[in-house]
Design goal:
CATH topology of chain D: MetI-like fold
Number of domains of chain A: 2
Low-confidence stretches of chain A: 1-5, 324-331
Strand content of chain D: under 5%
Low-confidence stretches of chain D: none
Chains: A mainly alpha, B alpha/beta, C alpha+beta, D mainly alpha
Helix content of chain A: over 70%
Oligomer: heterotetramer
Distance between the termini of chain A: 18 Å
CATH class of chain D: Mainly Alpha
CATH architecture of the largest domain in chain A: Orthogonal Bundle
Mean pLDDT of chain A: 81
Helix content of chain D: over 70%
Structural class of chain A: mainly alpha
Shape of chain A: globular
CATH superfamily of chain D: MetI-like
Number of domains of chain D: 1
Largest interface: A-C, 64 and 73 residues
Strand order of the largest sheet of chain A: 1-2
Radius of gyration of chain A: 24 Å
Mean pLDDT of chain D: 83
Largest sheet of chain A: 2 strands, antiparallel
CATH topology of the largest domain in chain A: MetI-like fold
Largest sheet of chain D: none
CATH superfamily of the largest domain in chain A: MetI-like
Chain lengths: 331, 207, 536, 270
C-alpha cells in the first residue's frame, strides 16, 4: 500500500477507466467477429441475387474482413478516433444516426420506468421492512412471484388484455402511425403509447429493488440508532426518511447503478412485444440482418454508456461515503 | 410515576424475577446489582423495542396506565438511554439534525439558550453540533445521547449504565448534570457501580 | 399522519383520473373523410428506394408501390404496365416495347423511352440486386415511346425475370447519382407508381404513402396507405388497428376464417422448405442413403403437425405439384421405414456396434441438423425420423440469417431451410445445376454439392428452348433425374394466407406466382386500383 | 444429521414449507421417468387435444403429451438449476477467496473483470451468444454461470476481506500456513454464506433459463419449462378456448413455485 501513495487516487481512477474503455472497445470489436460464417453471405436476402458491389466496398473499407485481426483492430481504432462508427448497410444511414434515433425512444421508456420503479420499490420495501411483527414479509410472496414471471410473458399478457381486449391503451408502437413530431397532440399521443409498456416495465422492475430495500431495511432496523430514534420520539416519517432510507441508500445506489446500465437494453422484451422502436429492437434487426457495423456500434455505445454510468455512480458513492462520516476528527 | 409488581422474565434456560417497585414522581432511583442479574433485561422489557424474551408481571403502570398497552406512545412520556450508546446515533446525520428531529418529533421548538445551557452542563461544545457521530469520541457520543434524552423533556428518564464508556471526569459531569435534573424529572438509573449510585440516587433498589 | 394519507389518496385519484382522461381522449378518432388503409409490415424494410430497400420480399414490394416495371402481374397473371405492348424478334434476341402514352413521374416529368434506355444502361453500371441485366447487350430508343432491348444470347425468362422485375428509373434524377446504394434523398423515390411516399421513419419503421392522383393504370382507390410493424396482427386486426394483415402465420389467419367482416385468402404455394445435404460427407453423397432418408421422413405428418396443414407435401422432383411444369411420373417416396431400412442395409450402412447408430464405411452416421429457430418443431420431427433408420442427428437451431449463412458457406452436415422464388418458370432449378447463375443466393449451398452432367445438359438446354412443349419435356426429364438422385429433399411447400377487414377495403389478392420474382404477399399495388373502398 | 434437523426445526414455518416444496420438486425430478405416462419425445398423439384422462393436460401442436413434457421439465430445470447454482456459487466464492487472499495485482485484475461484467449490459451479450453458441444443455449452464458469478464474487470478496482481518486467520498466517490452511480455517465461516448463495443462484438459474429459452439458447429439443412457455406463447390461439389453462399455466406455475420457494428460503440472509 505504501508504495502506491505516490499515485494520486484520481489518476488511478482515470487509468482504471481508460483500461475499461479499451476493454469495451475490444469487446465491441471482437464479439461481432466471433459470429460464424462469412459476413458477406448473410447480406443477400431471400430473393436477391447478389449484394451490390458498392455496398461491399463500403463495408470492406470499414470492416475489412480480409485483413488480419490486429490490422482490423487498428483500423477500427483509427475510425473510432475520427468518431466514425461506420455506415449501416441495411438502413443506408450512418450508424451513429440510427443508434441515437433508437436510443431516444429507449431512454424515453426506460428512464421514467427506472425512476418510478425505484421510487416505488424503496417506498414498498422500506414500509415492508418497518412494519411491526414482520407483517411486511407477507408482501414478499407476491413480489417474488411477480419477479419470477418472465417479462416477455407479462408484456404479452398485458398487451392482449389491456391493449386489445379492453382497449384501454394503444397496443403497440411509439405513436399513432401518421402522426409526426409537428402534428398537434404529438406529445400526448406519445405519452399514451408509452403508458402500457411503461407500466409493464415498472411492474417487472419493482420486485428486485423492493426486496433489496426490504432486506436492507430489516438490517438497518436492527441498528441501535433506529431504536434510539424511536425512544427519542422522532416521528415515524423522519425515522423512515432520515434514519432508514439514508442508511440503505448506498446499497440502493449500487443496485440503481446496475439498473441504469441495464436501461439501454433491459426494456428489450417490452420493446419487442409492444413493437417499441428502441435500441433493443434495433439490435435485433441488426443481428438478424447481420448489419455488422450497426451491431458493432450498438455494442460500443451501450458498453460506453455502462462505463459512464458506473463511473458516475462510483463517484456519487465515493463522495457519499467520504462525507460520511467514517472520518475520525483527528485524522 | 412507575409501579411494577411481580415482574418475571423467562428466557429459554433462565428465569429472572424482580422485587416490586414503586417510584414516585421526581424521585431519582438507582438500580444496582452485579453484571448479569437482569438489570438491562428488565429495562429492555419495560421500555425497549428489541426485547427477545418472555416478560410477565402482575402490574406495570406508567403514570397510572399499563405500560404494555401504551406501545410506542410511551416514548412521549419517557426517555430511554440504552447501554452501549456508541451505536445509538445515526451515522448519516449531524448532531444538529438529531437534535432538530428530536425536537420536531416531540413538538418542541428550538430554544437556543436552553440548548446551550444543556450542552454546557454536559461540557459539550456547541461547534460539535455540526459533527457526524464518527467524528466524536466515545465519551462525547455518550453525553450526546444523554443530551438528546434530556432535550425532549421527558417525565421519566431511564438510563442504563451511563458510565460504560466514560472516564472518571466525564462521569462526574454526568452525575452533576443528573443531580441538576432531580426534582424536575423522575430518573431511573441502572448501574453496577454502587459508588456512582450512592452519590446520586435517592433510593437504591438492589437485585 | 391522517392528512398525509388523505393527500396521497387524493394524488392517486388524480393520477388515475388523468390516465383515464387521456385514454378516453384516445377514443376520439380524427373524423376526416380520408380513405386511409392500414396494413402491417414485418419490421423495418429500409429506405424504400430501388437500390436501398431491404433485400427481402416486403422490401421489394414496398418499393414497387412507387416504381413501375414494364410488365407486372395480378391475380390472373402477366399484364403490361408501363409497356403498352411488346414483341419479340424471331431469334429471341430483340424485345421491342411500345410504352403507354401519357405516363408521368411523380414530379410531372413525362416517362419516355429514354428513361427505359437509361435504366438498362444504369443497371449495367450499377448491378441491381433483384435481377441481373448482364444478358442485355444494348437498349435503343426508337422513338419517344418505343424502345428496343437487344440481348447477347436468347434468355427465355427475360420478360418475367427482367421486364417484370426491373423498376424504371427517372433519367433526369439518376443521371447525376454516382452511387445509388447510398442515395437516400427524397428524389430517390420519384417513380411512376400509384403511391408516393409521404414519410418514412427509420426508428418506428412506419411508412406512409399518399395516392398518386395521376396514376396511368387507373384511379387509386385509397388516399393514404400506412404500413407499420405490428407484433400481434390478429388482435390488431380484430381491434381495428389495422385493416389488412399481410404477414400473418397461416394458422393464425385460418383461425379468423369464420369471423364476421374478415375475409381469409389463401395464396399459391411458391416457397419450398427443404433439406440440404453436405456432399462432403461420404454417407450423404451416397444416393441410396439419400433415398432412404427420403423414405424415412413422414412428410405428411410434418405438414399436418409441425406447420398445422399450412403447406403442401413436398415432391421429389423439385417442382411444385400444382405447377404446369410438374412431372407426375416421378418416384413418390411415400413414408416407408421398412424400405428405408432395406436401402440402408443394401448399401452397407448398418449398426455394427449396437449403439443405435449406423456406420457407413467405418464412419458413424452422426450429424448436426441445422435449422432456423422458427422451425424447431420440424427439426424435432426430422431428428426422430432419421433416428429410426440409424442416423443420429443433433439439432442445432439458430436465427434465419445464421442458418442461411452457414448453408451458403457449406458449414453444415444436414440443414433444413426455406426459401422463396419457387414459382412460375422453373429456372429456379438452376440452384441444382453446376452453373448456378440465375439462382437466388439463398438457395445455393456452399461446400461440396451434387453435380450431374446429365442434369446440367438438360437444364441448360431448357433455358434456350423456345418451344414450350419441348421445354416442358426437358424439365420433366430434369425432374426424373432429381427424383432419382435426390440432391435435395423438398419436405413441403408452405402456403401463405392473409386476412383483411372487408368493411374497409375489398379486393386484396395473392399475385400469380408472387409479386415480381415470387414475393408471396398481398402487397400488390394493383389491388389498390382494382379493389373498392368500403368504409365510410 | 441430527444437527441439520435441529436447524430445520428452528426455521420459521414458511421456510419449512419452502423446504417441503423443494423436496417435492426434487422428488418429482428424480421420479419423473417412472411417473411420466409417455416419453417426452413421443409426438404420436393427436395434436391439441384438451385435457382428458388419457392426457391430463392435453397435447401440444405436435402431439406431445403436455403432462409428460411438464414432468420432463422438472428433470431439466431442477438439475440445470442445481448444477448452474452450484457452479456459480462455487466459482464466485473461489475467485473471491483467491482475490481476498492474494490481494495485490491478482485482486485488482479479478475485481477489474468483475466490474467490467457489471458494466456491459448483459442482454446484449446474451443476444450475441445466442447467435454464435452451439445450443446444448452444457452451453446453457455455462451461459448461466457466466452471467451470475459476479454478484457472488463481489459480496463474498467483501465478506472474506473482513474475515481475513480477524485474529484466528492472522494467527494461522503468522504460523506460515498456506492458502489451503486458511481456506480450511475459513470453511465454517464461508459455508453458511455459500449455501445461501447456492440457493439464490439456483433461483437465478431458473429465471435465466426461461429468458435464455426465449432467445433460443439451449438445446432446442430439450423440453425445459422455458421452452414450454415459449412454445405456448408462440401458439397463435392461446387465448381462445382456454387453451392457456393447460398449455401456458402449468409450466408457469411450476417455474413460479420453484423460484418463489428458493427465494423465500434465503430471504433476509444474503
Amino acid at each position: 500500500m505504501a508504495r502506491r501513495v505516490a499515485i494520486s487516487p484520481a489518476l488511478r481512477n482515470i487509468t482504471r477507466y481508460f483500461v475499461y474503455l479499451l476493454a469495451i472497445i475490444f469487446i465491441s470489436f471482437a464479439l461481432p467477429r466471433l459470429i460464424p460464417g462469412n459476413p458477406l453471405s448473410f447480406m443477400a436476402g431471400d430473393y436477391a441475387k447478389d449484394v451490390p458491389s458498392s455496398v461491399l466496398q463500403q463495408f470492406g473499407a470499414y470492416y475489412a474482413p480480409d485483413l488480419p485481426f490486429t490490422q482490423q483492430f487498428i483500423l477500427y481504432l483509427r475510425n473510432l478516433g475520427k468518431l466514425d462508427l461506420g455506415y449501416s448497410f441495411y438502413y443506408k444511414a450512418p450508424v451513429a444516426e440510427r443508434i441515437f434515433g433508437a436510443l431516444k425512444w429507449t431512454l424515453l421508456l426506460s428512464l421514467p420506468g427506472l425512476l418510478i420503479s425505484t421510487g416505488l420499490a424503496i417506498w414498498i420495501g422500506v414500509r415492508m421492512g418497518l412494519a411491526a411483527n414482520d407483517r411486511g414479509a407477507t408482501l414478499l410472496l407476491p413480489l417474488l412471484a411477480t419477479q419470477a414471471v418472465p417479462t416477455f410473458l407479462m408484456a404479452a399478457l398485458a398487451q392482449v388484455l389491456f391493449g386489445y381486449k379492453l382497449r384501454l391503451f394503444p397496443a403497440s408502437g411509439a405513436c399513432t402511425p401518421g402522426i409526426t413530431a409537428s402534428s398537434p397532440g404529438y406529445a400526448l399521443d406519445v405519452l399514451k403509447h408509452l403508458l402500457l409498456p411503461l407500466i409493464v416495465l415498472v411492474i417487472s422492475e419493482v420486485p428486485s429493488t423492493a426486496i433489496l430495500s426490504y432486506n436492507s431495511t430489516l438490517r438497518v432496523r436492527k441498528e441501535q440508532y433506529v431504536s434510539f430514534a424511536k425512544y427519542l420520539g422522532i416521528s415515524e416519517d423522519d425515522v423512515r426518511q432520515q434514519f432508514v432510507i439514508k442508511n440503505i441508500l448506498p446499497e440502493i445506489l449500487g443496485k440503481l447503478s446496475m439498473q441504469t446500465i441495464l436501461c439501454v437494453t433491459g426494456s428489450l422484451f417490452v420493446e419487442a412485444v409492444f413493437s417499441y422502436p428502441g435500441l433493443g429492437t434495433l439490435l435485433k434487426q441488426a443481428t438478424s440482418y447481420r448489419d455488422y457495423p450497426l451491431m458493432q456500434g450498438i455494442l460500443l455505445v451501450s458498453c460506453l454508456y455502462g462505463v459512464c454510468i458506473s463511473a458516475i455512480f462510483e463517484s456519487i458513492l465515493n463522495t457519499h461515503t467520504r462525507t460520511d462520516y467514517r472520518r475520525k476528527p483527528n485524522e | 410515576m412507575l409501579v411494577l409488581e411481580g415482574a418475571r422474565i423467562q428466557y429459554s434456560h433462565l428465569t429472572l424475577s424482580y422485587p416490586d417497585m414503586h417510584i414516585a414522581a421526581g424521585e431519582f432511583v438507582g438500580i444496582s446489582g452485579a453484571s448479569g442479574c437482569g438489570k438491562t433485561s428488565l429495562l429492555e422489557a419495560l421500555v425497549g423495542r428489541d426485547f427477545r424474551g418472555e416478560f410477565s408481571c402482575e402490574r406495570a403502570l406508567l403514570v397510572g396506565r399499563d405500560i404494555r398497552m401504551l406501545g410506542e406512545a410511551r416514548y412521549r412520556l419517557l426517555s430511554y438511554c440504552p447501554q452501549f450508546a456508541q451505536n445509538a446515533l445515526n451515522p448519516k446525520l449531524t448532531m444538529r439534525q438529531h437534535l432538530r428531529l428530536t425536537l420536531k418529533g416531540n413538538g418542541l421548538s428550538y430554544d437556543q439558550e436552553k440548548i446551550e445551557v444543556l450542552l454546557e452542563r454536559l461540557r459539550l461544545s456547541v461547534t460539535l453540533l455540526d459533527h457526524y457521530p464518527a467524528m466524536l469520541s466515545g465519551g462525547q457520543k455518550q453525553r450526546f445521547v444523554l443530551f438528546l434524552c434530556a432535550v425532549k423533556q421527558p417525565e421519566l428518564l431511564i438510563l442504563d449504565e451511563p458510565s460504560s464508556a466514560l472516564d472518571v471526569i466525564t462521569l462526574r459531569d454526568i452525575v452533576s448534570f443528573l443531580t441538576d435534573l432531580r426534582g424536575k424529572t423522575t430518573i431511573i438509573m441502572a448501574s453496577h457501580s454502587q459508588q456512582l449510585l450512592s452519590k446520586a440516587a435517592d433510593q437504591i433498589i438492589s437485585f | 399522519m391522517k392528512t398525509r394519507v388523505l393527500s396521497r389518496v387524493l394524488l392517486l385519484v388524480l393520477i388515475v383520473s388523468m390516465v383515464l382522461a387521456l385514454v378516453s381522449y384516445s377514443k376520439v378518432k380524427d373524423s376526416s373523410e380520408e380513405r386511409v388503409l392500414r396494413m402491417d409490415i414485418a419490421g423495418n424494410t429500409g429506405f424504400p428506394a430501388m437500390y436501398t430497400t431491404a433485400s427481402n420480399g416486403p422490401g421489394y414490394a414496398i418499393m414497387s408501390y412507387m416504381f413501375d416495371t414494364l410488365v407486372w402481374k395480378d391475380d390472373q397473371g402477366e399484364l403490361n404496365l408501363l409497356a403498352d405492348h411488346y414483341s419479340v424478334s424471331d431469334d429471341q434476341l430483340t424485345y421491342t416495347f411500345r410504352l403507354r402514352e401519357g405516363v408521368t413521374f411523380h414530379d410531372g416529368t413525362p416517362f419516355t423511352a429514354q428513361d427505359v434506355k437509361f435504366t438498362f444502361d444504369y443497371t449495367a453500371l450499377h448491378p441491381y440486386q433483384w435481377t441481373a441485366t448482364t444478358m442485355v447487350k444494348e437498349a435503343r430508343v426508337v422513338d419517344d415511346l418505343t424502345v428496343e432491348v437487344e440481348l447477347n444470347k436468347p434468355y427465355v425468362p427475360f420478360i418475367t425475370d427482367v421486364a417484370g422485375n426491373l423498376p424504371m428509373l427517372p433519367e433526369h434524377i439518376f443521371e447525376h447519382v454516382a452511387d445509388p446504394t447510398f442515395f437516400t434523398a427524397k428524389e430517390a423515390l420519384i417513380g411512376t407508381g400509384p403511391l408516393m411516399l409521404e414519410s418514412y421513419d427509420p426508428n418506428t419503421s412506419v411508412y406512409i404513402f399518399v395516392k398518386n392522383p395521376a396514376y396511368h393504370y387507373g384511379e387509386v382507390q385509397i388516399d393514404k396507405l400506412i404500413l407499420a410493424p405490428c407484433s400481434n396482427a390478429k388482435e390488431a386486426l380484430l381491434a381495428g388497428d389495422i385493416d389488412a394483415a399481410a404477414g400473418m402465420k397461416y394458422v393464425t389467419a385460418a383461425s379468423l376464417k369464420d369471423t364476421e367482416n374478415m375475409t381469409f385468402i389463401e395464396g399459391q404455394s411458391i416457397q419450398v422448405a427443404r433439406l440440404y445435404l453436405n456432399f462432403a460427407e461420404e454417407a450423404l453423397a451416397a444416393k441410396e442413403i439419400r433415398q432412404a432418408i427420403s423414405y424415412a421422413i413422414d412428410r405428411q405428418s410434418i405438414v399436418d403437425k409441425a406447420v398445422n396443414g399450412s403447406a403442401i407435401v413436398g415432391t421429389a422432383g423439385f417442382v411444385h405439384p400444382d405447377s404446369p411444369w410438374y412431372n407426375p411420373n416421378i418416384i413418390a417416396y411415400h413414408y416407408d421405414v421398412t424400405k428405408a431400412r432395406e436401402l440402408m442395409v443394401a448399401v452397407g450402412a448398418i449398426d455394427t456396434n449396437g449403439d443405435g447408430v449406423a456406420e457407413y464405411r467405418g464412419q458413424k452416421l452422426s450429424y448436426e441438423l441445422l435449422a432456423s429457430d422458427k422451425d424447431v418443431k420440424v427439426c424435432e420431427m426430422l431428428v426422430f425420423y432419421l433416428q429410426a433408420i440409424g442416423i443420429e442427428c443433433v439439432a442445432r437451431v439458430a436465427d434465419d440469417s445464421t442458418v442461411k449463412g452457414c448453408i451458403c458457406d457449406g458449414e453444415f452436415d444436414i440443414a433444413f431451410d426455406k426459401h422463396g422464388t419457387f414459382g412460375g418458370d422453373p429456372k429456379y432449378m438452376a440452384c441444382l445445376a453446376t452453373d448456378t447463375a440465375g439462382a437466388i443466393r439463398a438457395s445455393v449451398p456452399g461446400g461440396k454439392r451434387w453435380q450431374n452432367e446429365g442434369f446440367d445438359r438438360l437444364f441448360a438446354a431448357s433455358l434456350l428452348e423456345q418451344n414450350q412443349v419441348a421445354r416442358k419435356e426437358l424439365i420433366a426429364k430434369c425432374q426424373e433425374i432429381v427424383a432419382e438422385e435426390l440432391p435435395t429433399l423438398a419436405v413441403y411447400f408452405p402456403v401463405n394466407a392473409a386476412v383483411y377487414n372487408n368493411t374497409v377495403f375489398e379486393g386484396f389478392y395473392f399475385t400469380a406466382d408472387g409479386i415480381a420474382s415470387g414475393i408471396p404477399f398481398i402487397y400488390n399495388k394493383l389491388c389498390l386500383i382494382s379493389g373498392q373502398w368500403q368504409g365510410e | 444429521m441430527s444437527d441439520l434437523w435441529a436447524k430445520i426445526g428452528k426455521l420459521p414455518p414458511y421456510k419449512r414449507l419452502c423446504l417441503l416444496v423443494l423436496a417435492a420438486y426434487l422428488a418429482i425430478a428424480l421420479l419423473a421417468p417412472a411417473v411420466m405416462p409417455y416419453s417426452a419425445r413421443d409426438f404420436s398423439h393427436p395434436p391439441l387435444v384438451p385435457p382428458s384422462s388419457k392426457h391430463l393436460l392435453g397435447t401440444d401442436e405436435l402431439g406431445h403429451d403436455i403432462f409428460s413434457l411438464l414432468l420432463n421439465g422438472f428433470r431439466f430445470t431442477v438439475f440445470t438449476a442445481l448444477i448452474a447454482g452450484f457452479l456459480s456459487a462455487t466459482l464466485g466464492t473461489a475467485l473471491a477467496f483467491i482475490s481476498a487472499y492474494c490481494g495485490g495485482a491478482i485482486d485488482t485484475a479479478l475485481h477489474f473483470f468483475a466490474s467490467l461484467f457489471l458494466m456491459v449490459p448483459e442482454l446484449i451479450v446474451i443476444m450475441f451468444i445466442a447467435v454464435f453458441a452451439r445450443p446444448n444443455l452444457k452451453n446453457t449452464i455455462l451461459a448461466i454461470v457466466f452471467f451470475s458469478w459476479v454478484r457472488v464474487y463481489q459480496i463474498m470478496r467483501a465478506k472474506l476481506q473482513d474475515c481475513l482481518g480477524n485474529n484466528r486467520v492472522v494467527y494461522i498466517l503468522s504460523l506460515k500456513g498456506n492458502i489451503l490452511d486458511v481456506a480450511r480455517a475459513l470453511f465454517l465461516d464461508i459455508l453458511p454464506i455459500w449455501s445461501s448463495f447456492f440457493v439464490l443462484q439456483c433461483n437465478k438459474a431458473v429465471m435465466y433459463e426461461t429468458t435464455l429459452a426465449y432467445f433460443g439458447i439451449g438445446d432446442p429439443l430439450a423440453k425445459t419449462w422455458g421452452k414450454l412457455i415459449k412454445a405456448a406463447m408462440d401458439y397463435p390461439n392461446l387465448y381462445y378456448d382456454a387453451v392457456f389453462l393447460w398449455y401456458l399455466v402449468p409450466p408457469l406455475v411450476a417455474v413460479l413455485g420453484l423460484v418463489v420457494s428458493l427465494a423465500l428460503l434465503v430471504s433476509g440472509e444474503v
